[in-house]
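Quarterly update, task 2.4: pyridoxal-5'-phosphate-bound model.
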Amino acid sequence: MEKKMTEKMTGKITPAHLQTRAVHAGDRKPLEGFVPVTTPIYTASSFIYKDVDTLDKVFGHEIAGPAYARYSNPTNDALEELMASLESGAGALACSSGMAALQVALLTALTDRRKSVVAAESLYGASISLLMKVLDPLGIQVRFVDFCNLDAVNQAVIDNQPGVLLMETITNPILRVAAVDRLAQMARSAGAALIVDNTFATPLVIRPLEVGANFVVHSLTKYLAGHGDVLGGMVVADEENLEALRAYSRIVGPVLGPFESYLAMRGIKTFPLRMERQCANACRVASALAANPAIERVYYPSDPKHPDSEAIRRIFAPNLYGAVVSMELKNAQRAEVFRFLNALKMIVPATSVGDVHSMVLYPFMSSHREVSPKHRERMGIRENLVRLSVGIEGADDIIADLEEALGTLANSAIDSKD
Ligand SMILES: Cc1ncc(COP(=O)(O)O)c(C=O)c1O
């Protein structure tokens, strides 16, 4: 019996029929006597054990191990362990996108809590849509408030008795930085969970679970995977919420595919090196833009006059301010912004952040297109705003490309006066 199971597990059976051999021969070899230096891509949708009694114990969580890929998969397990370690969490869940991760975190947190969310006014556009177009119609109360105004958040917490507070550590695209440590205290005293989207800051700059957040969400698509070839998300949870997160996921099945998981893990190995370089480049780019006559205003958290500089100094790792720089072009509207974007020779106009290459995006056209004009105005997103994700290229080349494109803008303004 034991021998038969082993043969079944290792694919060593040698049936006469080619059709049967095509299905079983050579397959299912357990790893023996060696360890691969990186985690392999496990594409199996289900897993077998030496007997069904063992499988039963795996299903019952008496023995750790994968049974079915919606519940867990060794490639995802490795990535989740890595992310829990980077974010100082109890465990993590790899999801098919950043938005899937945010949805999972919100619905997990709301399951046993009051059906009310107090959310930062300044959020990624699709996160606002998730709250307004998915959660609100399900009967979950949603209230937006300026998270950089702690008194206003406190009042909203008293008025709304939320089950969840939601924020981003560096907001997309205006780059505000709310005091996540103080907000975590506020959430705890109100019996609410704090969910923090740490996509723009990354765990190199700040680890929200260490200052009291309950869930951290990432779009892996961005700095963590880093090469523009993966769509993925991650929820990292504290001890108190981890089992609820896993239970929710086992039912709903928002999981990441193993190939993407492998790519994300491969990307994360160089994420701290890339991010350090990107942050240093972004500091130089922000200074160069601030000195450029075609620029009206630069948004970057290293600015000593940044409205949240006190929180930034307290909660961010020294000299790391993220690698997104936003800018307002002087006397510009949509047409001038398009002219500037089209004039860039190296920096690509792509809808993401965090890749090795520099990218620009026009929030009006993409990330915040679906947000109502009123909400966009409250967030401070004007028609002349451009978001730049600074890559790992030589900083001088990034600056030269920007200055040349800004120069064409100034020249065409002079031309149009002639
Ligand atoms: C701050 C932030 N959170 C979440 C997301 C969603 O991530 P994804 O595109 O991987 O679903 C994005 C995407 O741009 C983002 O900028």
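Highlight for this quarter: The CA atoms of residues 282 and 323 lie 5 Å apart.
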